[in-house]
Amino acid sequence: MNKKTQESFHFFNLNIFFMATRKANAKWTGTLKEGKGVMNFSNYKGPFTFASRFETGEGTNPEELVGAAQAGCYSMFLSALISGDKITPGSIETTATVHLESDDIGPLITTIELDCKVRCEGLSQARFAELAQTAKEKCPVSRLYKGAEIKLTATLL
After folding, report:
1. 8-21 burial, b if ≥16 CB within 10 A, otherwise e?
2. Are 18 and 9 in contact (CB under 8 A)?
Protein backbone atom coordinates (compact mmCIF):
# COMPACT_ATOMS: atom_id res chain seq x y z
CA MET A 1 0.00 0.00 0.00
CA ASN A 2 1.21 3.48 -0.72
CA LYS A 3 1.14 6.22 1.91
CA LYS A 4 -2.01 7.81 0.49
CA THR A 5 -3.90 4.50 0.67
CA GLN A 6 -2.92 4.09 4.32
CA GLU A 7 -4.09 7.55 5.31
CA SER A 8 -7.64 8.08 6.43
CA PHE A 9 -9.93 11.06 6.64
CA HIS A 10 -12.83 12.08 8.83
CA PHE A 11 -16.09 11.97 6.90
CA PHE A 12 -19.39 12.77 8.63
CA ASN A 13 -18.35 11.19 11.94
CA LEU A 14 -16.85 8.15 10.19
CA ASN A 15 -13.20 7.23 9.77
CA ILE A 16 -12.82 6.38 6.07
CA PHE A 17 -9.68 5.07 4.41
CA PHE A 18 -8.65 6.26 0.96
CA MET A 19 -9.75 3.86 -1.74
CA ALA A 20 -7.47 1.74 -3.84
CA THR A 21 -7.14 2.26 -7.58
CA ARG A 22 -9.69 0.18 -9.52
CA LYS A 23 -9.43 -1.24 -13.04
CA ALA A 24 -11.86 -2.37 -15.69
CA ASN A 25 -11.24 -3.76 -19.16
CA ALA A 26 -13.16 -3.77 -22.42
CA LYS A 27 -12.33 -5.53 -25.67
CA TRP A 28 -14.10 -4.85 -28.97
CA THR A 29 -13.66 -6.88 -32.17
CA GLY A 30 -15.02 -6.06 -35.59
CA THR A 31 -16.82 -3.07 -37.02
CA LEU A 32 -19.09 -0.82 -35.00
CA LYS A 33 -22.35 -2.33 -36.29
CA GLU A 34 -21.36 -5.99 -36.76
CA GLY A 35 -18.73 -6.24 -34.04
CA LYS A 36 -19.04 -7.31 -30.44
CA GLY A 37 -17.31 -6.66 -27.19
CA VAL A 38 -16.98 -7.73 -23.60
CA MET A 39 -16.47 -5.62 -20.48
CA ASN A 40 -14.72 -7.09 -17.46
CA PHE A 41 -14.24 -5.93 -13.89
CA SER A 42 -14.10 -7.76 -10.57
CA ASN A 43 -16.25 -10.87 -11.07
CA TYR A 44 -18.38 -9.31 -13.82
CA LYS A 45 -18.07 -10.16 -17.49
CA GLY A 46 -20.65 -8.54 -19.76
CA PRO A 47 -21.01 -8.82 -23.52
CA PHE A 48 -22.07 -5.75 -25.49
CA THR A 49 -22.92 -4.95 -29.08
CA PHE A 50 -24.10 -2.05 -31.23
CA ALA A 51 -27.66 -3.30 -30.69
CA SER A 52 -27.31 -3.51 -26.88
CA ARG A 53 -26.01 0.05 -26.80
CA PHE A 54 -27.97 1.96 -29.42
CA GLU A 55 -31.02 -0.26 -29.99
CA THR A 56 -32.73 -2.88 -27.80
CA GLY A 57 -30.42 -5.86 -28.25
CA GLU A 58 -29.34 -8.28 -25.56
CA GLY A 59 -26.25 -7.62 -23.51
CA THR A 60 -25.09 -4.66 -21.51
CA ASN A 61 -23.65 -1.31 -22.49
CA PRO A 62 -21.43 1.37 -20.99
CA GLU A 63 -24.44 3.49 -20.01
CA GLU A 64 -25.86 0.70 -17.81
CA LEU A 65 -22.51 0.48 -16.07
CA VAL A 66 -22.48 4.27 -15.63
CA GLY A 67 -25.95 3.97 -14.10
CA ALA A 68 -24.89 1.15 -11.78
CA ALA A 69 -21.86 3.17 -10.67
CA GLN A 70 -23.99 6.27 -10.06
CA ALA A 71 -26.72 4.37 -8.17
CA GLY A 72 -24.24 2.47 -6.02
CA CYS A 73 -22.11 5.50 -5.20
CA TYR A 74 -25.14 7.67 -4.42
CA SER A 75 -26.67 5.03 -2.12
CA MET A 76 -23.43 4.57 -0.19
CA PHE A 77 -22.82 8.32 0.11
CA LEU A 78 -26.37 8.93 1.35
CA SER A 79 -25.91 6.14 3.89
CA ALA A 80 -22.74 7.83 5.13
CA LEU A 81 -24.54 11.15 5.49
CA ILE A 82 -27.47 9.62 7.36
CA SER A 83 -25.08 7.61 9.55
CA GLY A 84 -23.27 10.86 10.32
CA ASP A 85 -26.46 11.96 12.08
CA LYS A 86 -26.18 8.80 14.21
CA ILE A 87 -29.17 7.24 12.45
CA THR A 88 -29.02 3.81 10.81
CA PRO A 89 -30.87 3.62 7.48
CA GLY A 90 -32.96 0.47 7.06
CA SER A 91 -32.50 0.44 3.29
CA ILE A 92 -31.51 2.71 0.44
CA GLU A 93 -32.47 1.60 -3.07
CA THR A 94 -31.49 3.78 -6.01
CA THR A 95 -32.28 3.33 -9.70
CA ALA A 96 -30.32 5.38 -12.22
CA THR A 97 -31.76 6.04 -15.68
CA VAL A 98 -29.05 7.18 -18.08
CA HIS A 99 -30.04 9.15 -21.18
CA LEU A 100 -27.80 8.71 -24.23
CA GLU A 101 -28.48 11.35 -26.85
CA SER A 102 -26.30 13.04 -29.45
CA ASP A 103 -24.89 16.43 -30.28
CA ASP A 104 -22.83 17.70 -33.22
CA ILE A 105 -19.84 15.61 -32.07
CA GLY A 106 -21.69 12.31 -31.52
CA PRO A 107 -23.32 10.28 -28.72
CA LEU A 108 -23.45 12.05 -25.35
CA ILE A 109 -24.80 11.21 -21.90
CA THR A 110 -26.99 14.22 -21.20
CA THR A 111 -28.98 13.26 -18.12
CA ILE A 112 -28.89 10.76 -15.28
CA GLU A 113 -32.14 10.43 -13.35
CA LEU A 114 -31.81 9.01 -9.84
CA ASP A 115 -34.89 7.52 -8.19
CA CYS A 116 -34.08 6.74 -4.58
CA LYS A 117 -36.30 5.03 -2.01
CA VAL A 118 -35.14 5.12 1.61
CA ARG A 119 -36.48 3.41 4.71
CA CYS A 120 -35.11 5.14 7.78
CA GLU A 121 -36.79 5.54 11.15
CA GLY A 122 -35.97 8.73 13.02
CA LEU A 123 -35.07 10.81 9.95
CA SER A 124 -37.25 13.86 9.34
CA GLN A 125 -38.47 14.67 5.84
CA ALA A 126 -36.65 18.02 5.90
CA ARG A 127 -33.32 16.50 6.96
CA PHE A 128 -33.77 13.67 4.45
CA ALA A 129 -34.31 16.15 1.60
CA GLU A 130 -31.15 18.03 2.62
CA LEU A 131 -29.02 14.87 2.85
CA ALA A 132 -30.41 13.46 -0.41
CA GLN A 133 -29.46 16.64 -2.27
CA THR A 134 -26.01 16.75 -0.65
CA ALA A 135 -25.37 13.13 -1.68
CA LYS A 136 -26.39 13.94 -5.27
CA GLU A 137 -23.94 16.82 -5.41
CA LYS A 138 -21.02 15.30 -3.53
CA CYS A 139 -20.82 11.55 -4.17
CA PRO A 140 -17.62 10.81 -6.14
CA VAL A 141 -19.42 9.52 -9.23
CA SER A 142 -21.71 12.58 -9.37
CA ARG A 143 -18.63 14.76 -9.19
CA LEU A 144 -17.11 12.81 -12.07
CA TYR A 145 -20.23 13.23 -14.23
CA LYS A 146 -20.68 16.97 -13.74
CA GLY A 147 -21.11 17.41 -17.50
CA ALA A 148 -24.42 15.54 -17.39
CA GLU A 149 -27.52 16.85 -15.67
CA ILE A 150 -28.28 14.61 -12.70
CA LYS A 151 -31.92 14.68 -11.65
CA LEU A 152 -33.09 13.30 -8.30
CA THR A 153 -36.37 11.98 -6.97
CA ALA A 154 -35.89 10.89 -3.36
CA THR A 155 -38.62 9.32 -1.25
CA LEU A 156 -38.46 8.63 2.47
CA LEU A 157 -40.70 5.61 3.03
Report:
1. eeeeeeeeeeeeee
2. yes
pLDDT tens per residue, range 21-62? 888 999 999 999 999 999 999 988 999 999 999 988 899 999
Q: Which residues form the domain of 136?
A: 61-157
CB-CB contact of 92 with 75 (8 Å) = yes
Regarding whether 113 and 139 lie in a shared domain, the answer is yes
Mean predicted confidence (pLDDT) in 96-112: 93
Domain identity same for 140 and 87:
yes
Q: Positive or negative, the Cα torsion across 135, 138, 141, 145? A: positive
Q: Which helix (H) or strand (E) holds 52?
A: helix 50-54
Where is 38: in which H helix or E strand? Answer: strand 36-41
- Tell whether 38 and 20 lie within a shared domain: yes
**Which DSSP helix (H) or strand (E) runs through 6?**
helix 3-6
CA distance 89 to 75: 11
> 13: phi > 0 → left, psi -120 to 50 → alpha, else beta; which?
left
The domain that holds 143 is classified in CATH as 3.30.300.20
